[in-house]
Specification:
This protein is of the alpha+beta class. The chain has two helices and seven strands; from the N terminus they run βββββββαα.
Length: 156
């Protein structure tokens, strides 16, 4: 893209490439203009910059910054959405685990009670069908010592 800027002057949009530790020289003929000469930190001549024709689809610094900001905002929005999704998933998993624990609690409690009674008695617990086959027999013979009344001590 070129334009006429006064008699005998052509102004053209260009891309300038130069090393990061240098800068473009100030133009001595045009106030505010730059030349293709490169200067270092000590203002010593460091070489020439490379000029490339600018395509119309190239962005200015402000446009590139705005585009980068939009991409950052989009990335942040995606990250926030993923965080919300992860939090919802964690909450759902917590609810499911809690519901499962509430449903399983009576069975676990019953199992622990049965285990505790087995350990305390030392007797094996019979299955349900075996408990129906147990017959109780009354003994009417001699009594054991624990069932006899206590003896009275003679008075001396």
């Amino acid at each position: 893209m070129t334009t006429e800027d006064g008699p005998g002057m052509v102004r053209e949009k260009m891309i300038v490439e130069y090393p990061a530790d240098t800068r473009l020289s100030q133009s001595s003929t045009t106030p505010g203009g730059r030349s293709s000469l490169l200067r270092d930190e000590d203002n010593q001549l460091a070489g020439h910059s490379v000029l490339f024709p600018a395509d119309d689809d190239l962005l200015t610094r402000a446009e590139a910054d705005a585009l980068a900001d939009a991409r950052v905002r989009l990335t942040q929005a995606e990250a926030e959405a993923m965080l919300k999704l992860a939090m919802a998933g964690a909450a759902a998993a917590g609810i499911a685990v809690t519901a499962g624990a509430v449903k399983a609690a009576p069975y676990v409690r019953k199992g622990f009670a049965a285990l505790k009674s087995k350990l305390n008695r030392g007797e094996p617990e019979l299955p349900d069908e075996a408990s129906d086959a147990i017959i109780e027999i009354e003994f009417s013979g001699r009594t054991t010592r624990s069932e006899q009344p206590p003896r009275e001590m003679p008075a001396s």
